[in-house]
Specification:
The structure holds three protein chains of three kinds. Chain A is α/β, with parallel strands linked by helices. Chain A contains three helices and seven strands. Chain A has a domain at about 5-95: Beta Polymerase, domain 2 (2-Layer Sandwich). Chain A has helices at about 5-15, 40-50, 105-115, and strands at about 20-25, 30-35, 50-60, 65-75, 80-90, 95, 120. Chain B is of the alpha+beta class. Chain B has two domains: about 5-40 and about 325-390, Enolase-like, domain 1 (2-Layer Sandwich); about 45-320, Cytochrome-c3 Hydrogenase, chain B (Orthogonal Bundle). Chain B is built from 15 helices and ten strands. Chain B has helices at about 45, 50-60, 70-80, 90-115, 120-140, 165-185, 190-195, 205-210, 215, 225-230, 250-275, 325-330, 330-335, 340-350, 375-390, and strands spanning about 5, 20-25, 30-35, 150, 155, 290-295, 300-310, 315-320, 360, 370. In chain B, the strands form four sheets. A three-stranded antiparallel β-sheet of chain B has the order 1-2-3, with no helix packed on it. A three-stranded antiparallel β-sheet of chain B has the order 6-7-8. In chain B, helix 4 runs antiparallel to helix 5, helix 6 (about 165-185) runs antiparallel to helix 11 and helix 14 crosses helix 15 (about 375-390). The longest helix of chain B is centred in the N-terminal third of the chain and has 30 residues, at about 90-115. Residues about 10-15 and about 350-370 of chain B have low confidence and may be disordered. Chain C is α/β, with parallel strands linked by helices. In chain C, strand 3, helix 3 (about 65-75) and strand 4 form a beta-alpha-beta unit. The model of chain C has no long low-confidence stretch (mean pLDDT about 85). Classes of the chains: A alpha/beta, B alpha+beta, C alpha/beta. The interface of B and C includes residues 10, 13, 49, 58 and 123 of B.
C-alpha cells in the first residue's frame, strides 16, 4: 500500500469529518478530527489500512484546552500520521481505543494518571506509573497545577 | 488454584521498569500482570525545564544501554521541527555511533541470555568481546557509556582521521566473534531444545501489541526505521533487515546475532565513505511548531514528539521507548509456558535483566516464599542440564 | 581489628540495588565482574539475595515508589555492612533533580559510607573505591 492510496482512502471515507489536513513535510502528517470521530477513524486506520499504532501523546494547551495526538505509521512507509483530538478541560473524557488496539492500553493508563483524562470503556483503568497512594486529582504534567 | 510468582518489583530498567506477577497452575503460566513505575523519573516533565541542548543530555539518561538511540530520536525530532539537514560527515559519525551501540547492546543481551540458560561461559565471553566496542566508543567519544555526541544540526566531536584504521581493525576483530556466537547458537542441540518453539509471539499479536525491533522482526514483520524512514547516513549504506518467521526465543536470538553482521558492515561502509568536512551547523534557535523524531534502537523504534512555542524550552516532550510496547507483549508470549522458561521469555524481548535477579515465588494463601530467585534461576539452569543428559552430550 | 571487620573486608559479597537509575551504572557494575576487570579474583561477588550481602551498591535517584522496598532490602542485609552510592544520581539526583517522583536522596534513606561519583563511574573508579574502602575499614 502506498501513501497516495492511504491518503485518498482516508479523505474519501471521512471527507467532511476531517477538520484540518496539515502536512508538516512529506513524512509528517497531522490530522485534526472530532473526539466523536476517533473510534471510526482508528478502526479504519488499524483494520482497513493496516497501520501500526506508535503512541499517543497528550498536551496541555492554553485556553482551557487539552489535546491528545495519536501517532500511527504504516509498514514500509516513512509517513507518520498523527490524529489530533482536542478536548475541553471542563469535560476531559474520550473513548478508549484499547479495545481496538491492545498496544494502546498502557499509554491510556499513563495519560489518565499524568493528565487526568478519562478513557471510557478502558479494560483496565488503574495506575500505571505513579504509586497507588498518589493523591487523587494531582496530575503532574498538567500546567494549571 | 493458581500460585502467584512476583518478579521484581524494582529493577534498573530505563524508563519502563516492571514488576511481573506470574500466575501459575502447576508448571504452566496462566496469566501475567505487569506493574510499572518504580523507575518513573518524570523525564517528560523535566524536559520542559531544560533547554533544547540540555534535552539531548537528559534523554541520553533515559537508558544507559540505548544511550545514543534516545538522543538520535531527539535530534531527528528537533531537525524535523526546524527543517534542518546536518552536514554529511556528521550524518556518518552519527550512524557509526548508533551501530557501535547496537553491537554492544546485542552482545550484552546474548551474554545475559547465556547466563539464564546456565551457560555462564557465554556470558563471560560476550562481555569480554563487548569491551572491544567499548574501547572504540571511549576513544571516539571519551566515555564508555553516555557518549554526548549528538546535537541538533551536527555532532559535538569529530572522528579523528588517524583513528580510522584502528577502528577498522577492531571491527575485523568482531567478525570471528560473531561467527563464534552464531555457531554456538546454531549448532547446539541443547539450545535448540531450550529455545525453539518457546515463547512464540505470532505475527498477528505482534501487530496488535505494536511491538518493534528484533521482537517484531523475529515474528516475521519486516520493520526497521533505518529502512522505512531513513535518517542519518543509513540511506547511503547497504544493509539488510534480518527477519525470522517463527517468533520464538530462538528467532529473537538469531535475529540479534545476524544484526551484528549488518552493524559491523554498516560501520565499515561509513568509515570508507566518510569525507572530511564540517560537522556542525551551529543551530542557535528552533522555530515554534511540532516535531517527530524516530530512530532504530537496538530494541526497536524510539519515538519522540515535541511541541515548541519558539522559546528555548520545549513546551511538551513525549518519549516512547521500544520496551514500552515490547514488554506488554509478554502477556501473550509467556502464557502456557513452563515456569522454568518464563524467566527466559520475559528476557527475550530484551528489557533490562537485573529484575530477574529478584525473583520469589509466593504462595497466594499464606503469602510465604516458596521459591527464591536463585531457585528460579537454578530451575532454568537445571532444565538445560537435564536436556544435556537426555541428548547425551 | 575486630573479627567482624576482618570477616567483612575479606571476600566482600555485594548486592546491587537499583533505585530508579538509567542502567548505565548497573552495566558498569556488571562489567566489573566480567573478564576485563574481573573483580571476582579478589573474592568480590554479586549475590542474588540481600541476606548474603556484605555491601550494598546503590544506584539511581531513589524514586518515591521505591523507598519502602529499599528499606525492606536494607533490613535484610546482615550488620555490619557497607553501603556504597554509585553514580551522580545516587549522590545528588544529577540530571533528574526536581523531578516529581524523586524527593529524597539515597543518603536520606540509607546510611551511605562511600560515594562514587561519575555518570557513569568507570569500572576502574569502582575498583579504586572498593580498594579504598577495604583499606579504611581495616584501619
Amino acid at each position: 500500500m502506498d501513501w497516495k492510496s492511504i491518503k485518498t482512502g482516508l479523505q474519501d471515507q471521512f471527507a467532511d469529518k476531517i477538520q484540518r489536513w496539515h502536512e508538516h513535510n512529506t513524512r509528517r502528517i497531522y490530522l485534526d478530527i472530532d473526539a466523536e470521530m476517533l473510534e471510526p477513524v482508528v478502526t479504519y486506520l488499524f483494520n482497513t489500512l493496516q497501520s501500526r499504532f506508535i503512541i499517543a501523546s497528550a498536551v496541555d494547551k492554553p485556553n482551557n484546552m487539552m489535546e491528545i495526538i495519536y501517532h500511527f505509521d504504516f509498514l514500509h512507509l516513512p509517513q507518520v500520521l498523527s490524529l489530533r483530538v482536542v478536548l475541553s478541560k471542563d469535560r476531559l473524557e474520550i473513548e478508549s481505543i484499547a479495545p481496538i488496539i491492545v498496544g494502546a492500553e498502557w499509554i491510556e493508563r499513563e495519560i489518565h494518571e499524568l493528565f487526568g483524562i478519562t478513557f471510557k470503556n478502558h479494560p483496565n483503568p488503574v495506575h500505571l506509573l505513579l504509586p497507588d497512594d498518589w493523591p487523587e486529582g494531582n496530575y503532574p504534567l498538567r500546567r494549571d497545577q | 488454584m493458581s500460585t502467584i510468582i512476583p518478579i521484581g518489583p524494582y529493577h534498573p530498567l530505563q524508563e519502563e521498569p516492571e514488576f511481573f506477577r506470574l500466575h501459575v497452575e502447576g508448571e504452566k503460566v496462566v496469566h501475567l500482570d505487569i506493574e510499572l513505575g518504580y523507575n518513573h523519573r518524570g523525564i517528560e516533565k523535566l524536559a520542559e525545564s531544560k533547554s533544547w541542548d540540555q534535552v539531548v543530555f537528559l534523554v541520553e539518561r533515559i537508558c544507559g544501554i540505548c544511550s545514543t538511540s534516545h538522543p538520535a530520536a531527539a535530534i531527528n525530532c528537533m531537525e524535523d521541527l526546524g527543517a534542518i539537514v546536518a552536514p554529511e560527515r556528521a550524518q556518518y559519525i552519527r550512524a557509526i555511533i548508533c551501530e557501535l551501540e547496537r553491537i554492544h547492546s546485542h552482545l550484552l543481551w546474548v551474554g545475559l541470555a547465556g547466563h539464564f540458560l546456565g551457560y555462564n561461559t557465554v556470558w563471560m565471553w560476550s562481555w569480554k568481546y563487548r569491551e572491544i566496542v567499548c574501547d572504540v566508543l571511549e576513544k571516539v567519544t571519551g566515555n564508555r557509556q553516555s557518549y554526548a555526541m549528538f546535537k541538533a544540526g551536527g555532532v559535538r566531536r569529530d572522528l579523528d582521521q588517524d583513528d580510522i584504521p584502528w577502528i577498522m581493525e577492531s571491527m575485523d576483530k568482531m567478525k570471528p566473534v560473531v561467527d563464534l556466537f552464531r555457531g554456538a547458537v546454531m549448532d547446539d542441540p541443547v539450545l535448540h531444545a531450550r529455545l525453539k518453539g518457546v515463547g512464540c509471539l505470532s505475527a498477528e499479536d505482534a501487530i496488535n501489541y505494536a511491538v518493534v525491533g528484533p521482537t517484531a522482526r523475529a515474528s516475521g514483520i519486516r520493520i526497521d526505521v533505518r529502512k522505512d524512514d531513513p535518517y542519518f547516513a543509513y540511506p547511503w549504506v547497504d544493509f539488510d533487515i534480518v527477519v525470522y518467521e517463527e517468533g520464538d526465543v530462538y528467532s529473537k536470538a538469531m535475529c540479534r546475532i545476524d544484526e551484528l553482521y549488518q552493524s559491523v558492515s554498516i560501520i565499515e561502509q561509513c568509515l570508507k565513505k566518510m569525507k572530511p568536512g564540517p560537522i556542525d551547523l551551529n543551530i542557535k534557535e528552533l522555530p515554534p511548531g511540532e516535531g517527530i523524531g524516530r530512530a532504530e534502537a537496538p530494541r526497536g523504534e524510539v519515538f519522540h514528539y515535541t511541541l515548541s512555542d519558539g522559546s528555548n524550552f520545549p513546551a511538551r516532550y513525549k518519549v516512547r521507548a521500544p520496551s514500552y510496547t515490547n514488554i506488554l507483549s509478554n502477556e501473550k508470549a509467556v502464557i502456557g509456558e513452563t515456569v522454568a522458561d518464563a524467566a527466559l521469555i520475559l528476557a527475550a524481548v530484551d528489557p533490562c535483566y537485573c529484575c530477574t535477579e529478584r525473583l520469589t515465588v509466593i504462595d497466594e494463601e499464606n503469602n510465604k516464599s516458596v521459591l527464591g530467585q536463585a531457585d528460579l534461576l537454578k530451575l532454568s539452569q537445571a532444565k538445560t542440564e537435564t536436556l544435556m543428559k537426555r541428548l547425551s552430550l | 581489628m575486630s573479627l567482624k571487620i576482618q570477616a567483612l573486608t575479606r571476600s566482600i559479597w555485594v548486592y546491587h540495588l537499583a533505585t530508579g537509575s538509567c542502567n548505565n551504572c548497573d552495566i558498569e557494575i556488571l562489567d566489573c565482574i566480567t573478564p576485563r576487570f574481573d573483580l571476582e579474583r579478589f573474592g568480590i561477588q554479586l549475590v542474588g539475595s540481600p541476606c548474603h550481602a556484605d555491601a550494598l551498591l546503590v544506584t539511581g535517584n531513589m524514586t518515591t515508589k521505591n523507598i519502602p522496598r529499599v528499606k525492606a532490602v536494607y533490613e535484610q542485609v546482615p550488620k555490619p555492612n557497607v553501603i556504597i552510592a554509585i553514580g551522580t544520581c545516587a549522590l545528588d539526583h544529577g540530571m533528574f533533580d526536581g523531578s516529581y517522583t524523586s524527593r529524597v536522596k539515597v543518603d536520606d534513606i540509607l546510611p551511605v559510607d562511600f560515594y562514587v561519583p561519575g555518570c557513569p563511574p568507570k569500572p576502574e573508579g569502582m575498583i579504586a573505591a572498593v580498594a579504598k574502602l577495604i583499606a579504611q575499614l581495616r584501619q
